[in-house]
Every structure is written in C-alpha cells, then in structure tokens.
Specification:
globular, about 210 residues, mainly alpha, two-stranded antiparallel ribbon
Length: about 210
C-alpha cells in the first residue's frame, strides 16, 4: 500500500534533480532514478480506461512517454508546495491523454471541450491501416541514441515490457533486424513494436535540438 514515506522518496528525487544544472550528468542520473521510481510506483492513473478496446495500452504508453519526456525537460516546474510528485504526474497524464489518442487515431477520436470522448466503432478501428514510415537517422542521432546520455531512451519502453525500450529497438533496426524477428524475439506484436518505435522517432528532432542547445 502506498504511504507517505514513498511520497517523500519521490519528492526527494525530484528536488535532487532540481538542484543540479540542466543537462549535467548528475541531473540526468537523478531524473533517470525519478522516472524509474514513478514507473514502479503502481500509482499512475489510467484515464478513460475501458475505452479504445484493443488500442488502450498503446495509447496509454504514448501518453506516459510524453509525460516522462516532459518531466525530464521541465523538472524545474515541479513545486513541492503545490502537491506530491504523483499528483503532478497524474495531472500531466490526464492532460496528455487526448494528444496520445490523436497521435494514434488522428481525427477518429475527438475530445471536445467538456473532455468527453466520441466513441469509435470497432469497424472503424479495424479499418485503420498502419503506416510504416521510418525517418532517416543521421549518424549523429544514431550516436546519441547509442550513448543515451540521460538514460531516457532505455527508460522509454512499451508498457510492462522494459526490454522493449526505444534504445534496444532503434539499434536492432539499425543492425538490420526485421520487425518479424523482433516480434519473435520479444513476444510482442509487430504492430505494437513498430508503432511505438515510429512515434519515438517523430519526437527526435525536438529532443535533439534541446540536447544540442
């Protein structure tokens, strides 16, 4: 059962990360510990659970990864006086969930101003076709992924499958492994692996800019 000591541990990790200058190794280490502790807390909310049958985990994974990236880039925005770390994180997950839905379904799922959800029929979902489109990776980006200086690529993974992290998948694809081979190796569907991988790639340009600035 979650208790005040565990909340205190997350607060300490967050404030520790804030004490170090941005983009320093010590801040990166602290952020990696923080994200790991949040993931393992078992206290993350699951907005709109029961909807988007067959796609919910993929959407939830996308929302969480967006939040963890935001936390790593904006940890200084966390204010201990306004609430616990998990309250902040769960607020962000709810806020980012519509973006994650739109990332996967485009205009099929609509979040009006009242935050209600337009139900999407199973027939419509079955008509979705996965588009396999890998952006070209430059040698600089490949080196960046391989070194993973802040540990974020290894901490970004398919829900409940830390072995299927972005760093592993990206490097295996660069080595020439097919999605079918990776599906067999990891026991995770090709569609889930490739969809997760491609969404991570779409986020690379902005991350790279932040990292090199």
């Amino acid at each position: 059962m979650w208790n005040q000591q565990q909340d205190e541990k997350l607060r300490q990790l967050a404030t520790e990360a804030q004490q170090y200058p941005a983009k320093t190794r010590m801040r990166q280490i602290a952020l990696t510990k923080l994200v790991k502790a949040i993931r393992e807390s078992g206290q993350l909310c699951r907005p709109h659970r029961g909807k988007f049958m067959g796609f919910y985990e993929e959407i939830y994974d996308e929302a969480c990864n967006r939040v963890f990236l935001y936390i790593c880039q904006n940890i200084d925005n966390y204010d201990t006086n306004k609430g616990e770390v998990l309250q902040w994180v769960n607020f962000l997950i709810r806020k980012r969930f519509p973006d994650a839905v739109n990332s996967i379904f485009g205009t099929l799922a609509i979040f009006p101003e009242d935050s209600s959800i337009k139900r999407v029929s199973i027939d419509e979902l079955n008509q979705l076709k996965y588009r396999h489109n890998n952006p070209l990776l430059s040698s600089e980006i490949i080196a960046w992924i391989e070194s993973d200086p802040d540990g974020f690529f290894q901490q970004t993974y398919v829900t409940n499958h830390p072995e299927a992290n972005f760093k592993f998948l990206a490097l295996k694809r660069i080595e020439g492994y097919s999605w079918k081979e990776l599906e067999s190796k990891l026991g995770i569907s090709l569609k889930t692996l490739s969809g997760f991988h491609d969404r991570c790639l779409k986020n690379l340009p902005g991350q790279l800019k932040d990292y090199l600035n």
